[in-house]
Amino acid sequence: MSLKDGELHIEGNVLALSEILGVAEHGAPRRRRLVVLTSREPPAPPWFELTPSMLEPSVEIPDLETLARTLRSRLESQSYRRGRLARVRLERDELETAVLAREELPGALSVPVGRGPRDPVSRVAEPLSAMSGGTTVAVLSFSLAWPHAPPGAIIASGAVGALVATGVMYLVARRGRRRRQRTRVLVLCPDGCVIGLPSGVRTFHWSELGPFSISVDRHGRFRRRRGLRVVDPDGELLGTLDASWFAQNLTLIVAVANAYRERVGS
Fold first, then answer.
1. Closest residue by Cα to residue 32 from 67, 74, 75, 72
2. Within this chain, do residues 243 and 164 fall inside the same structural domain, yes or no?
3. Same structural domain, 196 and 257
4. The domain containing residue 39 runs over which residues?
5. For residue range 185-242, what is the model confidence (pLDDT) as tens digits?
């Protein structure tokens, strides 16, 4: 991966500056990633993710941080609507209609809904309860059908019952995940975003929003929960969504949203 003559070369792909919608960084310092936002054909994500090992060493661009600064500097000198991405901006109602109709929008990041907040105790108790119930039913059924069965056979029947119950739980959970993947809680586009806030579904242009951030709230004595904090340009809170509602990395969501906001909404 390299930057040559104003074009970004990534794994056989060549991106002109006019094709780059924004640049976002995420991850811990030692596992830093650079996301170059652009329009790609689904099901590919609307970005290329770069790691330090992908960068061709050079004096001008020795690391990802320098590459990010260089790209942002060059992008600031031109509108993102120039070149091949030039088009008319969608109005809010048009954007919401397109998202709800599941139309393909250039550079759109759709975030499926997650499972939502859950008590840590229930996460452990649910599978244990299913295994216990499956074991009990299997042992009782086996004992009634074969009253003089040896202890080893009864124990084996209990193990089979636990495995069957666990398998059923897995299938139910998998079906639930597929259903949730069809339901989206957030869609980020170059023109704006559609988000399911506690007050209802809202659609915004980026100029109508302040920076996205991650909130950390204390729940109980030892637990802390992260969430997505959405504010208007004056910093007034529009809503907070628990991180568990997003089936996507929250840090990446914030990085992409702010990259679009800084690139397009300014």
1. 67
2. no
3. yes
4. 1-87
5. 899 988 899 998 888 889 999 999 999 999 998 766 667 789 999 999 999 999 999 9
